[in-house]
Specification:
It is built from 3 helices and 16 strands. The protein has 261 residues and is of the alpha+beta class. Strand 7 and strand 8 form a beta hairpin.
Length: 261
């Protein structure tokens, strides 16, 4: 007589119960381990903001002389002026640099899509900020732009304030953080010509020709500095970083922020 084992629902041998429980726990762990490389790969494959690509070629020690700057092909390049060796290169997808402006600690570049960027000049360790110049991309492609001559210029000897000059407007930004400080639009029927500008002392003179022949020549030349348009009895504009010692002094003196007149 043969004995047929009877299986009672809910009752299993202790060993089988443990094996089943272990297999249930092992499945989620295995799936998580399989997904981890995919998650890591997706993280590293994310495109850089604004299509930025910075390649550092050589580490530099503190106190090393600031590198020279140039545009080379589709890149901005910082290089050692003594040896000519590149320290870092910076490129952006879908754009090429038209001009680069050196300032203490800053490498400010204008790109063919109208974007302006600021990179840490010494070592290329960071692209600090990006600023778009509305409506400038199409104009930059025309002969009238003269290769973007005069579009980028500093407004003070230390390079703390940057002016971006286009036919429609002059925009001033604080170099430290890219903060927009003031905007001066061209007069109706007139247009700024950044290639026709000259510096006289602390003032930047920019041509603003008008289509109307009756417009006096004095109205076709604009003088600006880091505080805005130079005019009698204007209200000074504070450009210091908030909380700085100079900013506190201005505030206490009653010279807060104001639009240029």
């Amino acid at each position: 007589m043969s004995v047929v084992p009877i299986e009672v629902p809910g009752l299993r041998p202790t060993g089988a119960r443990r094996a089943r429980r272990g297999s249930r726990l092992a499945l989620p762990v295995a799936l998580a381990l399989l997904a981890l490389p995919l998650i890591t790969a997706a993280h590293h494959s994310r495109p850089a903001p604004y299509g930025d690509h910075v390649t550092v070629h050589a580490r530099v020690a503190d106190g090393t002389e600031a590198p020279a700057l140039r545009t080379k092909g589709r890149t901005v390049q910082a290089y050692d002026p003594a040896t000519g060796r590149a320290r870092w290169t910076y490129s952006r997808e879908g754009a090429r640099p038209l001009s680069v402006l050196p300032a203490p600690g800053h490498a400010i570049a204008l790109w063919s899509d109208g974007m302006v960027t600021d990179t840490a000049r010494a070592d290329g360790s960071a692209v600090r900020w990006h600023r778009a110049t509305p409506g400038s991309a199409s104009w930059l492609r025309t002969p009238a732009a003269r290769g973007a001559a005069g579009v980028l210029t500093t407004l003070d000897p230390g390079g703390h304030m940057l002016a971006i000059v286009t036919p429609l407007r002059i925009s001033a930004y604080r170099s430290a953080d890219g903060d927009l400080r003031w905007v001066l639009p061209a007069q109706r029927g007139c247009a700024f010509e950044p290639a026709r500008s000259v510096r006289r002392g602390g003032a930047l003179l920019i041509a603003q020709p008008c289509g109307d022949a009756a417009t006096p020549w004095t109205s076709q030349l604009i003088a600006v500095d880091d505080l805005g348009r130079i005019a009698p009895r204007r209200t000074p504009l504070g450009n210091e970083l908030p909380g700085s010692a100079h900013d506190v002094v201005r505030t206490r003196a009653g010279k807060g922020f104001a639009q240029p007149r």
